[in-house]
């Protein structure tokens, strides 16, 4: 049947056409050049030490697949050992592994929050947190990004309600590159009888003592209800741990649908993650180099009159405003040898299209200086209309 005779297929085709026309069409094509969109912040994903540990684990493992969910034959001592070691790394009583950060946030929030409860969520929280909140059916209060005066006012306004209250936030915001003051949020949670849930996806491995994250840096890892640590970014692996007390872990084993109904990850991955954590603990030199590269880039771009936000992390947004300008800048940078993509709505709010520079410790200062010059050139070319707008991204 032709698309024109099938309402569903025509709707799909129409929406894709509209995305192309509005500069919102995405592809899986990977730009070539110096990567500025990798989340492999410490370089562990290509570290030969981690590769050798993973190869050894595969060779020594009795199987390369789990065969079922953790509750139906897929559990192993490998994963129990990995969870125990990761809990020690995170500074919590227990940890439970999920197949992805998305699955962890979705499963956690849908399990613990119920209709009648209230969730207070930062307006720029990741989609996985937003979707977990939606799935739970809880009432949500979205406070403006980083507006903790507004958050406190909302907590006070809902102080007499009977349901549970949750403050939910990323610790390092993935599109802004700025931080949540985790210690202050923990204080607000204490004051108003709320539970704190934090997502350390972009902070683990990079910040905190031995790369343990911002909750550990603020010494609130045991005060929070749950701290979610992703393994697929600075730890160069895959999946995520929800770190908490033992009671919450037992609850999630019973109630988190993304855990209960997911096939367990293969045992060798547990060994890879354990090795990644051991390596990350000792990578203070890489963390220091990454911080210095981010400082040089931010200061250089600000000096050229660009808006890079107020962050101080390895994620550096370059705000373009319009989709067309972001696409043009991305195209120009790709031509100068940088693998970068434009980030556009709905990934970010309307009017805040940007390039997102995700730095890694493998970059050099010379490359950062070249990037600054390339950004100046991209802006000049866009102002004279000499750059096209075909680059696709988020």
Give an overview in words:
With 394 residues, the chain is α/β, with parallel strands linked by helices. The protein has 2 domains: 117 residues, Aspartate Aminotransferase, domain 1 (Alpha-Beta Complex); 221 residues, Type I PLP-dependent aspartate aminotransferase-like (Major domain) (Aspartate Aminotransferase, domain 2, 3-Layer(aba) Sandwich). The chain is 45% helix and 14% strand. The strands form 3 sheets. The chain has a 7-stranded mixed beta sheet with strand order 2-8-7-6-5-3-4, with helices on both faces. Strand 5, helix 8 and strand 6 form a beta-alpha-beta unit. Helix 2 runs antiparallel to helix 12, helix 13 packs parallel to helix 15 and helix 14 packs across helix 15. About 1% of the residues have low confidence.
How would you summarize this macromolecular structure in one to three sentences?
With 394 residues, this protein is of the alpha/beta class. The protein is 45% helix and 14% strand.
Count of helix runs: 15
* % residues in beta strands: 5-15%
CATH structural architecture of the largest domain: 3-Layer(aba) Sandwich
Sheet with the most strands?
7 strands, mixed
Number of domains: 2
Over all CA atoms, what is the radius of gyration?
A: 22 Å
Strand and helix order:
HEHHHEHEHEHEHEHEEHHHHEHEEEH
* Percentage of residues in helical conformation: 40-55%
Please tell me what the overall shape is. Answer: globular
Number of strands: 12
Name the CATH homologous superfamily of the largest domain: Type I PLP-dependent aspartate aminotransferase-like (Major domain)
- Ends apart, CA distance between termini: 33 Å
Structural category is: alpha/beta
Q: Average pLDDT across residues?
A: 94
In CATH, the topology of the largest domain is named Aspartate Aminotransferase, domain 2
Low-confidence stretches: 387-391
Kindly provide the name of the CATH class of the largest domain.
Answer: Alpha Beta
Strand order of the largest sheet: 2-8-7-6-5-3-4
């Amino acid at each position: 049947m032709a698309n024109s005779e099938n309402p569903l297929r025509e709707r799909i085709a129409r929406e894709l056409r509209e995305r192309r026309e509005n500069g919102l069409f995405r592809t899986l094509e990977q730009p070539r050049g110096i990567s500025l969109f990798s989340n492999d912040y410490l370089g562990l994903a290509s570290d030969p030490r981690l590769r050798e540990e993973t190869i050894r684990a595969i060779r020594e493992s009795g199987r390369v697949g789990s065969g079922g969910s953790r509750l139906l034959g897929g559990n192993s001592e490998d994963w129990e050992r990995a969870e125990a070691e990761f809990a020690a790394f995170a500074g919590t009583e227990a940890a439970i592994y999920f197949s992805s950060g998305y699955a962890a946030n979705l499963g956690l929030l849908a399990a613990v929050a119920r209709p009648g409860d209230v969730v207070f969520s930062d307006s720029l929280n990741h989609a996985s947190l937003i979707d977990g909140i939606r799935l739970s059916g809880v009432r949500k209060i979205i406070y403006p990004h980083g507006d903790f005066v507004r958050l406190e006012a909302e907590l006070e306004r809902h102080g007499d309600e009977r349901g549970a209250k949750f403050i939910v936030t990323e610790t390092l915001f993935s599109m802004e590159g700025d931080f949540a003051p985790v210690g202050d949020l923990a204080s607000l949670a204490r004051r108003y009888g709320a539970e704190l849930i934090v997502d350390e996806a972009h902070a683990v491995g990079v910040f905190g003592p031995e790369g343990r994250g911002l909750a550990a840096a603020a010494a609130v890892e045991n005060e929070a209800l749950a701290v979610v640590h992703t393994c697929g970014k600075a730890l160069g692996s895959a999946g995520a741990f929800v770190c908490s007390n033992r009671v919450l872990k037992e609850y999630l084993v019973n109630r988190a649908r993304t855990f209960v109904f997911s096939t367990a990850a293969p045992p060798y991955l547990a060994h890879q993650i354990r090795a990644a954590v051991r390596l990350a603990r000792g990578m203070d030199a890489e963390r220091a180099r990454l911080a210095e590269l981010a400082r040089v880039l931010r200061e250089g771009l600000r000096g050229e009159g660009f808006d890079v936000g107020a962050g101080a992390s390895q994620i550096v947004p370059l705000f373009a405003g319009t989709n067309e300008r972001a696409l043009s800048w991305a195209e120009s940078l790709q031509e100068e040898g940088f693998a970068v993509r434009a980030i556009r709505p709905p990934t970010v709010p309307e009017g805040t299209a940007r390039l997102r520079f995700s730095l890694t410790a493998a970059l050099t200062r010379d490359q950062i200086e070249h990037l600054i010059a390339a950004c100046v050139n991209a802006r000049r070319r866009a102002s004279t209309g000499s750059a096209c707008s075909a680059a696709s991204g988020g």
